């Protein structure tokens, strides 16, 4: 074997080894690039799912808040309408105290109070109704005025029992029913 053939063989062996190393390097680079691309795609996918979940959660929260606010505004509007209705009812009752039927109502209330509490009662009402109450109740009339919308308040002389037939109290007792009527 000659020196030239030995050098040629070494050169061929070196070229083959270089080619093999370059191929391994290219394969390793492709593998690393593929792994990198897979990890980037995985990170993007995870990030997109997290973003979509966050957006859905935010949308759900905003929707729930908007629904709650709408229900609250509806409730407030309904309550305002009911309060206006109750104010109108009070105004109608105040107007009724000036009607011709009102003294008859006071008479029935006084009769009811006497029937419920007995003859020993004191009947009082508004200062405006003093003349009518004095006529209806007779000696049972108490001239002390009461700050009520209309009607009367009766109590036993020993103050152990009381019957409040004022329009204010009757309206308060029936407020739920009035609210249902107004709704």
In the CATH hierarchy, the architecture of the largest domain is 2-Layer Sandwich
Rough outline: rod-shaped
H and E string: HHEHEEHH
SS summary, helix count:
5
Strand residues, percent: 5-15%
How does the helix and strand content classify structurally? mainly alpha
| Spatial ordering of strands, largest sheet | 1-2-3
Say how many strands there are.
3
What is the name of the CATH superfamily of the largest domain?
Answer: ATP synthase, E subunit, C-terminal
Largest sheet: 3 strands, antiparallel
Q: What is the end-to-end distance?
A: 116 Å
Uncertain spans: none
Number of domains in the coordinates? 2
Oligomer: single chain
- The CATH class of the largest domain, by name, is Alpha Beta
The average pLDDT is 89
Approximately how much helix is present in the residues?
A: over 70%
Please tell me how large the radius of gyration is: 47 Å
What fold name stands as the CATH topology of the largest domain? hypothetical protein PF0899 fold
Question: What is the gist of this entry?
Answer:
This protein has 183 residues and is mostly helical.
Give the tags.
single chain, 183 residues, mainly alpha, hypothetical protein PF0899 fold, 2 domains, three-stranded antiparallel beta sheet, 5 helices, 73% helix, rod-shaped
């Amino acid at each position: 074997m000659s020196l030239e053939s030995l050098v040629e063989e070494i050169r061929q062996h070196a070229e083959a080894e270089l080619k093999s190393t370059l191929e391994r390097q290219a394969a390793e680079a492709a593998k690393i690039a593929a792994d990198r691309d897979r990890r980037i795609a995985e990170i993007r996918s995870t990030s997109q799912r997290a973003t979509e979940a966050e957006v859905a959660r935010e949308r759900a929260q905003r929707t729930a808040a908007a629904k709650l606010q709408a229900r609250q505004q509806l409730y407030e509007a309904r309550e305002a309408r009911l309060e206006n209705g109750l104010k109108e009812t009070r105004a109608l009752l105040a107007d009724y105290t000036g009607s011709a039927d009102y003294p008859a109502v006071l008479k029935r209330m006084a009769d009811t109070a006497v029937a419920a509490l007995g003859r020993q009662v004191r009947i009082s009402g508004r200062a405006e109704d003093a003349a009518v109450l004095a006529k209806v109740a007779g000696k049972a009339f108490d001239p002390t005025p009461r700050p009520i919308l209309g009607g009367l308040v009766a109590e036993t002389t020993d103050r152990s029992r009381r019957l409040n037939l004022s329009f204010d109290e009757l309206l308060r007792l029936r407020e739920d029913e009035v609210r249902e009527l107004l709704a």
